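Researcher: Here's my situation. A collaborator sent me these components and asked whether they could plausibly form a single complex. I don't have experimental data yet, so a predicted model of the whole assembly would be a useful starting point for our discussion.
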Amino acid sequence: MRVSAIIAAAGSGTRLGYAQPKAFVELGNLPLLYYSMRTLRGVADVVEVIVTLPPGKEADARLAAERAGLRVPLKLTQGGAERQDSVRTALALTNAGSSVVVIHDAARPFAAAGLFRACIEAAARSGGAIAAIPVADTLKKSAQSIITATVAREGLYAAQTPQAFIRDLLLAAHACASQAAPATDDACLVERIGGKVEIVPGSTLNFKITTPEDLLVARALAASDQILSGIFD
Ligand code: CTP
Ligand code: MG
């Protein structure tokens, strides 16, 4: 199977609050983006990697790929205003010979290579597949900090990346995407056109770095060889 991988790395990281765009904030002396590249190196079906970037970050992205030992062609592109715009631009650069496209957020440095493989296999079978974890906390709705309801968590999942899709299905989904209601993940666009999307068990380690607290946790984890070997293998 031929697979194109897209790494979404064009965000500015407003909630993290660094001067540097989030994908280039360092974790163990390496930019966040490095970790996804290093993991993709171990996913045999991946024939190319396309990265969406903030302005002026091409050289830094190439250096990260070199340090990660990425052996497949690397394509770089400027991101758009919203995540879905960035992914659409990257998708247009994917090789038409790829049957599956897998998308991953650079903001999730601890996605295991095995999770990528599982999503790719499930997408080839079902059309689409995403990593997700069952919601563990009790869910409350509130208005002005006062609880208005408890939401049953049965059947609720927190969506992660990687997310993989048959290339033609993802192209069709992005062609129908609306600028008025941008989607925060690709599965949402595929769902809107009636595509089938399978859930693959994700991991709590595969959290998204959003806030300064998340980065503190990530820096502690990145110092552990045990964690890193579990991800890159
Ligand atoms: N992303 C992107 N293009 C955008 C917005 C986001 O490629 N226009 C990427 C980010 O780089 C990130 C992923 O999508 O890896 C998930 O987005 P998020 O965690 O929201 O990152 P940011 O948008 O950078 O953060 P914030 O929303 O706090 O500004
Ligand atoms: Mg964002």
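Model: Some features of this prediction you could bring to your collaborator: The mean pLDDT is 97. Helices lie at 32-40, 58-68, 83-91, 113-126, 167-175, 186-192, 212-222, 225-232.
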